[in-house]
C-alpha cells in the first residue's frame, strides 16, 4: 500500500524584530547677549550604542622658526582645566577655562572628526547643541545633526581649520542629516559634508539645497543666546529671496568665507563672564541689500587660488602666548 503524500510545507514568517529607539545622534562680528531660556524638555538619554574609542591625532610639532606659536601647545593638551567654566578673551584670540565635553552620541546628534578632540565648550554651548538638535530634528524631519568642531579642551588657537573657536562659544554643524545608524569612528573621519553652493559660488546648487536647509538655519538663528549663524553668501542670498513671514531671524545669518557645507553658530558671552570680550551687535536689518552684503558677490566670494608653481606664499602671522589674555597662560599651564 502506497503511503499518503506528505503535506505541503507551511511557510513560517519570522517574528518581526523588536522595535528599538532611533540611534543616538548627537568669524565675523555680532548681537547683544540674549537671556537664555530653559530647555523645552529634559534631555533624553541616548540609546545604548557600540563603544567608540576615539584615536586622537598626534599634534604636529612646530616647524623651525615657529616654536613660539602657541597653537601647537594648546593642541597638545588633552584635558580641560578644573574649576568653573569661563570663556576668556575674544572669539579669535582667547582660551577656555573649565571646558565641558559634548558626548559623542546623543538622541539627535553625533560628533564628527573625533581624532581632533574638539568637542569641548562652555556649558552654554553644550546645552545649545542638545536643545538645537531636538528642535532641528522637528523642523527638518531629519534624524538629527552632525556636529563638527567646537573648541579644544582649553580652547585657544588650533593648528588647523579655524581662526576662531577659541573660547568655547563656537560650533560648526554640517549641512547633512544625521544618518539612521550610529557612525563608527572611521566613518566620522571619512564622511564629507554637503556643499550647497553652485560652481560659480554665487548661487545655491538646486540639486543639493532643500527647504529643510533653510528650516535648519532658521531654527539656529532663532535660538536664545545666538549672536551669529555664519553661512556662505550664496546661501544667505537664497534665503533673502525666498524667506516668508517673520524675517527678523535673517539679521543673525551673516555671510562669511567658506561655510558652504556647514553653519558656524556663535553664542554671546554668557552672563557674568567678565573675561569674555563681546562682539558688536548685528543690528536690526535683514542684511539682504546693504553694501556689505553686495561685497560678497565680487571676487571675494570665490575660493582663493593656490599660488603659482614655485612661489611660496607668505605664512600668516602666528599667535604667541603674549598675544592672548594674561589668564590664558594659567589656563594652558594648569595641571
Summed up:
By secondary structure, this protein is α+β, with helices and mostly antiparallel strands. Helix content is 19%, strand content 13%. Helix 2 packs antiparallel against helix 4.
Side-by-side strand order of the widest sheet = 8-11-9-10
Helix content: 10-25%
Mean pLDDT: 85
* Number of beta-strand segments: 11
Shape: globular
Class by helix and strand content? Answer: alpha+beta
Termini Cα gap? 92 Å
Biggest sheet, open or closed, and with what strands and sense? 4 strands, mixed
Determine the number of helices (DSSP H or I, runs of at least 4 residues): 7
Which series of helices and strands comes N to C? HEEEEEEHEEHHEHEEHH
CA-based gyration radius:
23 Å
Residue fraction in strands: 5-15%
Provide the low-confidence segments as ranges. Answer: 1-47
Describe it.
The protein is an alpha+beta fold and 335 residues long. It is 19% helix and 13% strand. Helix 2 packs antiparallel against helix 4. The N and C termini lie far apart (92 Å).
List strands and helices in order, with pairings.
Elements: H1 71-76, E1 86-90, E2 93-97, E3 100-101, E4 105-106, E5 109-111, E6 120-121, H2 123-140, E7 145-147, E8 170-174, H3 185-190, H4 211-221, E9 226-231, H5 233-242, E10 253-255, E11 262-267, H6 291-295, H7 327-333
Parallel strand pairs: 5-7, 9-10
Antiparallel strand pairs: 1-2, 3-6, 4-5, 8-11, 9-11
Helix pairs in contact: 2-4
Amino acid at each position: 500500500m502506497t503511503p499518503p503524500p506528505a503535506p505541503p510545507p507551511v511557510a513560517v514568517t519570522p517574528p518581526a524584530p523588536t522595535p528599538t529607539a532611533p540611534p543616538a545622534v548627537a568669524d565675523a562680528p555680532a548681537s547683544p547677549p540674549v537671556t537664555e531660556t530653559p530647555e523645552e524638555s529634559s534631555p533624553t538619554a541616548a540609546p545604548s550604542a557600540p563603544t567608540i574609542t576615539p584615536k586622537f591625532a598626534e599634534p604636529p610639532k612646530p616647524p623651525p622658526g615657529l616654536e613660539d606659536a602657541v597653537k601647537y601647545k594648546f593642541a597638545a593638551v588633552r584635558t580641560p582645566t578644573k574649576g568653573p567654566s569661563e570663556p576668556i578673551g575674544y572669539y579669535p584670540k582667547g582660551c577656555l577655562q573649565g571646558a565641558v565635553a559634548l558626548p559623542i552620541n546623543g538622541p539627535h546628534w553625533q560628533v564628527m572628526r573625533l581624532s581632533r578632540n574638539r568637542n569641548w565648550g562652555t556649558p552654554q554651548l553644550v546645552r545649545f547643541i542638545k536643545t538645537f538638535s531636538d528642535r532641528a530634528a522637528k523642523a527638518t524631519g531629519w534624524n538629527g545633526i552632525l556636529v563638527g568642531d567646537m573648541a579644544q579642551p582649553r580652547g585657544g588657537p588650533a593648528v588647523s581649520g579655524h581662526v576662531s573657536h577659541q573660547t568655547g562659544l563656537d560650533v560648526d554643524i554640517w549641512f547633512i542629516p544625521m544618518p539612521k545608524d550610529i557612525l563608527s569612528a572611521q566613518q566620522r573621519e571619512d564622511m564629507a559634508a554637503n556643499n550647497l553652493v553652485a560652481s560659480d559660488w554665487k548661487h545655491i546648487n538646486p540639486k543639493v539645497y532643500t527647504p529643510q536647509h533653510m528650516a535648519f538655519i532658521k531654527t539656529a538663528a532663532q535660538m536664545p543666546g545666538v549672536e551669529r549663524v555664519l553661512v556662505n553668501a550664496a546661501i544667505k542670498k537664497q534665503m533673502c529671496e525666498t524667506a516668508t513671514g517673520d524675517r527678523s531671524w535673517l539679521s543673525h545669518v551673516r555671510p562669511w568665507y567658506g561655510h558652504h557645507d556647514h553653519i558656524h553658530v556663535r553664542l554671546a558671552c554668557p552672563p557674568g563672564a567678565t573675561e569674555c570680550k563681546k562682539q558688536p551687535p548685528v543690528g536690526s536689518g535683514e542684511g539682504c541689500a546693504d553694501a556689505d552684503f553686495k561685497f560678497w558677490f565680487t571676487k571675494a566670494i570665490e575660493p582663493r587660488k593656490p599660488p603659482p608653481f614655485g612661489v611660496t606664499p607668505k605664512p600668516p602671522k602666528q599667535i604667541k602666548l603674549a598675544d592672548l589674555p594674561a589668564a590664558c597662560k594659567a589656563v594652558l599651564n594648569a595641571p
